[in-house]
Amino acid sequence: MIGHTISHYRILGIVGHRVALVAVVFALLLVSALAQQPSNGSLSNTAEPTPSERPRRVAQGVSEVLLIKKVKPKYPKAARAAGIQGSVVLQIVVDSNGKVKNLKPVSGDPSLTPAAVDAVKKWKYRPYVLNGQRVEMETQVVVAFKLK
């Protein structure tokens, strides 16, 4: 009888540990799901973005398709005389109407950067539409300077 009782407790102990482990895993999954839940209380992840949200990151290829007006940069005279050529990479934010509103140089020769910034400020994009709403987009653009 004593041997039977001891093995009965061992089985219950093993089962108890498994139940506890399953409960912990369930709790972690629940916390993870709640952390990803939209702040409006809905369990749906299809909440419509508002114009005040942060700009959506868009691949360079997508932004190139949306570009409707591209102004070529004026080659800086000093850079031309010095034989400087290359590319300037800019991080830009385009507002919900397609106007470039924010620029930040990422890389490129400092003598070419101001001309690239001046040109890209004049670029115009078709609005980026997400879930039926125009939203701001953030992307990178490359402005190439090549001597002829």
What is the fold's blueprint, element by element?
Elements: H1 2-35, E1 56-57, H2 60-66, E2 67-69, H3 77-81, E3 86-94, E4 100-107, H4 113-120, E5 124-125, E6 128-130, E7 133-135, E8 137-145
Parallel strand pairs: 1-8
Antiparallel strand pairs: 2-5, 3-4, 3-8, 6-7
List keywords for this structure.
alpha+beta; four-stranded mixed sheet; 36% helix; 4 helices; TolA/TonB C-terminal domain; two-stranded antiparallel sheet; 8 strands; 148 residues; 2 domains
| CATH superfamily label of the largest domain | TonB
CATH C-level label of the largest domain: Alpha Beta
Mean pLDDT: 80
The rounded Rg comes to 28 Å
Query: In total, how many beta strands?
Result: 8
Q: How are helices and strands ordered from N to C?
A: HEHEHEEHEEEE
Structural class: alpha+beta
Query: Strand order across the biggest sheet?
Result: 1-8-3-4
Q: What is the makeup of the main sheet? A: 4 strands, mixed
Overview of this protein structure:
It is a single chain. This protein has 148 residues and is of the alpha+beta class. The protein has two domains: 44 residues; 90 residues, TolA/TonB C-terminal domain. Strands 1-8-3-4 form a four-stranded mixed β-sheet. It has a two-stranded antiparallel sheet with strand order 2-5. The termini are far apart. About 4% of the residues have low confidence.
In short:
With 148 residues, this protein is an alpha+beta fold.
